[in-house]
Amino acid sequence: MAKEKNEWWEWMKALLIAVGLAAIIRYFLFAPIVVDGLSMMPTLHNGDRMIVSKLGEPERFDIVVFHAPEQKDYIKRVIGLPGDKIEYKNDTLYVNGKAFKEPYLKEYKDQVSDGPLTEDFSLKDIIDRETVPKGQIFVMGDNRRFSKDSRHIGTVPFEEVIGDTKFIYWPVKDMGVVE
Fold first, then answer.
1. How many CA atoms are closer than 13 Å to the CA of 68, on its beta-carbon side?
2. Is 147 a known active-site residue?
């Protein structure tokens, strides 16, 4: 009888440890997310399932998940970091006066025939500041014509960022690292 009770207790301890570790990993390190909408097309598709890493600070061109003002989580690409001057001219991104290529937009740019994919703007036009404020980032969806992003909601404070995501795990045909 004592042996059965001891074995039961060992199983319970193992189960409690497993549940505790899973909770810690999900809350502090990694979490799953489902892409909802078309704002990151063609890079990400509605229904893609991804892993969000909660480690480290976002870097330029990372895809991040954050709490948006509408009490909803958004997934967008980091375009500007604190102190950056952001500008779009002739469908080209300029950060601190330097032109940047955005290869993840090539597919959409090739399809557009009725004007630019990204309309001209400067950060000053959007948030009435020359640079991205300290502790915040400027984000945009890859589907530039149909994305509610920093052009509409303003810059995103670091404390609203859940983490960055690079890995699709579902559907299986799309599994892998995204650029």
1. 18
2. no
What's the CATH architecture for 30-177? Ribbon (2.10)
Three-class HEC string of 39-57: CCCCCCCCCCEEEEECCCC
Closest CA to 145 of 116, 173, 178, 102: 116
Euclidean distance between CA atoms 118 and 22, whole angstroms: 41
Read off the pTM.
0.85
Q: With DSSP H G I counted as helix, E B as strand and the rest as coil, what are the percentages for the chain, rounded to 5?
A: 30, 30, 35
d(CA 39, CA 90): 21
Sequence-ordered strand ranges (E) for the chain: 30-34, 49-53, 63-68, 72-80, 86-89, 92-95, 98-100, 121-122, 136-140, 156-157, 161-170, 176-177
Ranked by mean pLDDT, the top range of 25-29, 50-54, 93-97 is 93-97
Q: Which residue's entry shows tokens 């189960």? A: 15
What residues contact 17, with CB distance under 8 A and at least 6 apart? none
Closest CA to 54 of 25, 82, 34, 79: 25
Active site (annotated) includes residue 72: no
The string of pLDDT tens digits covering residues 31-54 is: 889 999 999 988 999 999 999 998
List the catalytic residue out of 3, 5, 39, 122.
Answer: 39
Q: Which of 53, 76, 147, 150 is catalytic?
A: 76
